[in-house]
Protein backbone atom coordinates (compact mmCIF):
# COMPACT_ATOMS: atom_id res chain seq x y z
CA UNK A 1 0.00 0.00 0.00
CA UNK A 2 1.53 3.30 -1.13
CA UNK A 3 1.30 6.22 1.24
CA UNK A 4 0.46 9.59 -0.27
CA UNK A 5 0.64 13.10 1.14
CA UNK A 6 -2.01 13.93 3.71
CA UNK A 7 -3.50 17.44 4.00
CA UNK A 8 -0.79 18.54 6.47
CA UNK A 9 1.91 17.34 4.06
CA UNK A 10 0.30 19.47 1.36
CA UNK A 11 0.67 22.49 3.66
CA UNK A 12 4.37 21.69 4.02
CA UNK A 13 4.55 21.36 0.24
CA UNK A 14 2.95 24.74 -0.32
CA UNK A 15 5.44 26.38 2.09
CA UNK A 16 8.31 24.58 0.38
CA UNK A 17 7.18 25.91 -3.02
CA UNK A 18 7.21 29.49 -1.72
CA UNK A 19 10.60 29.13 -0.06
CA UNK A 20 12.27 27.50 -3.08
CA UNK A 21 10.81 30.11 -5.41
CA UNK A 22 12.28 32.86 -3.21
CA UNK A 23 15.68 31.17 -2.97
CA UNK A 24 15.97 30.60 -6.73
CA UNK A 25 14.69 34.11 -7.54
CA UNK A 26 17.21 35.72 -5.15
CA UNK A 27 20.10 33.57 -6.20
CA UNK A 28 19.60 34.11 -9.94
CA UNK A 29 18.49 37.73 -9.65
CA UNK A 30 15.10 37.14 -11.27
CA UNK A 31 12.64 39.99 -11.76
CA UNK A 32 9.51 39.98 -9.61
CA UNK A 33 7.29 39.02 -12.57
CA UNK A 34 9.55 36.20 -13.73
CA UNK A 35 7.31 33.39 -12.42
CA UNK A 36 4.22 35.14 -13.82
CA UNK A 37 5.81 34.98 -17.25
CA UNK A 38 7.01 31.43 -16.66
CA UNK A 39 4.20 29.97 -14.57
CA UNK A 40 4.44 26.58 -12.98
CA UNK A 41 2.14 24.37 -10.95
CA UNK A 42 2.98 21.71 -8.43
CA UNK A 43 0.97 18.51 -8.11
CA UNK A 44 1.39 15.23 -6.29
CA UNK A 45 1.00 11.68 -7.58
CA UNK A 46 -2.43 11.40 -6.03
CA UNK A 47 -3.61 14.36 -8.10
CA UNK A 48 -1.70 13.46 -11.23
CA UNK A 49 -1.22 9.92 -12.42
CA UNK A 50 2.08 9.24 -14.14
CA UNK A 51 2.52 5.93 -15.93
CA UNK A 52 6.29 5.58 -15.88
CA UNK A 53 8.11 6.85 -12.86
CA UNK A 54 11.86 7.00 -13.44
CA UNK A 55 14.07 5.34 -10.89
CA UNK A 56 15.62 7.51 -8.18
CA UNK A 57 13.49 10.51 -9.15
CA UNK A 58 11.41 12.47 -6.67
CA UNK A 59 9.63 14.68 -9.19
CA UNK A 60 8.78 14.98 -12.83
CA UNK A 61 8.82 18.17 -14.88
CA UNK A 62 6.74 18.68 -17.99
CA UNK A 63 5.42 21.60 -19.98
CA UNK A 64 2.11 22.16 -21.68
CA UNK A 65 0.61 24.95 -23.74
CA UNK A 66 -2.39 26.64 -22.26
CA UNK A 67 -4.38 27.57 -25.37
CA UNK A 68 -7.97 26.72 -24.50
CA UNK A 69 -9.54 28.80 -27.28
CA UNK A 70 -6.87 28.24 -29.89
CA UNK A 71 -5.81 31.85 -29.60
CA UNK A 72 -2.33 30.65 -30.31
CA UNK A 73 -0.81 33.97 -31.24
CA UNK A 74 1.98 35.97 -29.68
CA UNK A 75 1.62 36.64 -26.00
CA UNK A 76 -1.62 34.66 -25.77
CA UNK A 77 0.45 31.52 -25.81
CA UNK A 78 1.37 30.64 -22.32
CA UNK A 79 3.42 27.63 -21.47
CA UNK A 80 2.78 26.19 -18.09
CA UNK A 81 5.36 24.02 -16.40
CA UNK A 82 4.07 21.19 -14.30
CA UNK A 83 6.07 19.68 -11.46
CA UNK A 84 4.68 16.40 -10.17
CA UNK A 85 6.07 15.42 -6.79
CA UNK A 86 6.36 11.66 -6.26
CA UNK A 87 4.99 11.91 -2.75
CA UNK A 88 5.21 8.21 -1.81
CA UNK A 89 8.95 8.32 -2.54
CA UNK A 90 9.43 11.54 -0.60
CA UNK A 91 7.67 9.97 2.38
CA UNK A 92 9.87 6.90 2.13
CA UNK A 93 13.15 8.83 1.84
CA UNK A 94 12.28 11.16 4.71
CA UNK A 95 10.65 8.39 6.77
CA UNK A 96 7.69 10.72 7.03
CA UNK A 97 9.51 13.02 9.47
CA UNK A 98 7.86 16.43 9.11
CA UNK A 99 10.93 18.58 9.78
CA UNK A 100 12.88 16.64 7.14
CA UNK A 101 10.07 16.66 4.56
CA UNK A 102 10.15 20.46 4.27
CA UNK A 103 13.87 20.92 3.45
CA UNK A 104 13.66 17.80 1.26
CA UNK A 105 10.83 19.33 -0.79
CA UNK A 106 12.66 22.67 -0.94
CA UNK A 107 15.59 20.81 -2.47
CA UNK A 108 13.47 18.88 -4.99
CA UNK A 109 11.47 21.94 -6.07
CA UNK A 110 14.52 24.22 -6.31
CA UNK A 111 16.07 21.63 -8.64
CA UNK A 112 13.01 21.69 -10.93
CA UNK A 113 12.82 25.50 -10.86
CA UNK A 114 16.45 25.69 -11.99
CA UNK A 115 15.50 23.35 -14.88
CA UNK A 116 12.68 25.76 -15.82
CA UNK A 117 15.02 28.73 -15.56
CA UNK A 118 17.48 27.12 -17.94
CA UNK A 119 14.72 26.04 -20.34
CA UNK A 120 13.32 29.55 -20.46
CA UNK A 121 16.77 31.01 -21.11
CA UNK A 122 17.60 28.35 -23.70
CA UNK A 123 20.70 27.50 -21.73
CA UNK A 124 19.85 23.86 -21.49
CA UNK A 125 20.56 20.99 -23.77
CA UNK A 126 17.55 19.34 -25.38
CA UNK A 127 19.08 16.32 -27.11
CA UNK A 128 18.58 13.03 -25.39
CA UNK A 129 22.31 12.37 -25.08
CA UNK A 130 22.77 15.81 -23.58
CA UNK A 131 20.14 15.12 -20.92
CA UNK A 132 22.58 13.54 -18.50
CA UNK A 133 24.91 16.49 -18.84
CA UNK A 134 22.01 18.90 -18.22
CA UNK A 135 21.06 16.89 -15.15
CA UNK A 136 24.63 17.24 -13.83
CA UNK A 137 24.63 21.00 -14.39
CA UNK A 138 21.27 21.45 -12.65
CA UNK A 139 22.39 19.19 -9.81
CA UNK A 140 25.51 21.31 -9.22
CA UNK A 141 23.61 24.59 -9.49
CA UNK A 142 20.99 23.35 -7.02
CA UNK A 143 23.64 22.36 -4.49
CA UNK A 144 25.61 25.61 -4.79
CA UNK A 145 22.40 27.68 -4.60
CA UNK A 146 21.05 25.89 -1.54
CA UNK A 147 24.39 25.86 0.29
CA UNK A 148 24.13 29.64 0.53
CA UNK A 149 20.91 29.59 2.54
CA UNK A 150 20.36 28.69 6.16
CA UNK A 151 17.34 26.45 6.66
CA UNK A 152 17.14 23.80 9.39
CA UNK A 153 18.24 20.35 8.13
CA UNK A 154 18.82 21.54 4.57
CA UNK A 155 22.52 20.73 4.83
CA UNK A 156 21.69 17.08 5.65
CA UNK A 157 19.39 16.98 2.64
CA UNK A 158 22.17 18.39 0.42
CA UNK A 159 24.57 15.75 1.78
CA UNK A 160 21.97 13.11 0.97
CA UNK A 161 21.59 14.28 -2.63
CA UNK A 162 25.33 14.61 -3.01
CA UNK A 163 25.63 10.99 -1.91
CA UNK A 164 27.63 11.83 1.23
CA UNK A 165 25.08 10.15 3.48
CA UNK A 166 22.93 7.19 2.53
CA UNK A 167 19.88 7.82 4.63
CA UNK A 168 18.22 10.75 6.31
CA UNK A 169 18.50 9.28 9.76
CA UNK A 170 15.55 9.56 12.15
CA UNK A 171 17.89 10.67 14.93
CA UNK A 172 18.33 13.99 13.13
CA UNK A 173 16.20 16.43 15.08
ZN1 LIG B 1 16.55 17.17 -12.98
Can you describe this structure?
By secondary structure, this protein is mainly alpha-helical. It has one domain. It is 46% helix and 11% strand. The chain has six helices and three strands. The protein has a three-stranded mixed β-sheet, covered by helices on one side. The protein is globular. The mean pLDDT is 88. The site of zinc ion (ZN) has 4 residues, from helix 4 and helix 5.
Which properties best describe this structure?
single chain, 173 residues, mainly alpha, three-stranded mixed β-sheet, 6 helices, 3 strands, binds zinc ion
Helix proportion range? 40-55%
Query: What's the number of structural domains?
Result: 1
Distinct helical segment count: 6
Bound ligand species = zinc ion
Q: How many strands? A: 3
User: Mean of the pLDDT scores?
Assistant: 88
Order of helices and strands: HHEEEHHHH
Strand content: 5-15%
N-to-C span: 28 Å
Amino acid sequence: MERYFLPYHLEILSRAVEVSEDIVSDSFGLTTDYWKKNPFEVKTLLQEKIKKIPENAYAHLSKYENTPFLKAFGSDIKSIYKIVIFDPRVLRATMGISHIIEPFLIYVIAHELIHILRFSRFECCVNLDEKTREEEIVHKLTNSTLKKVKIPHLSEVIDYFEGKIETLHPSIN
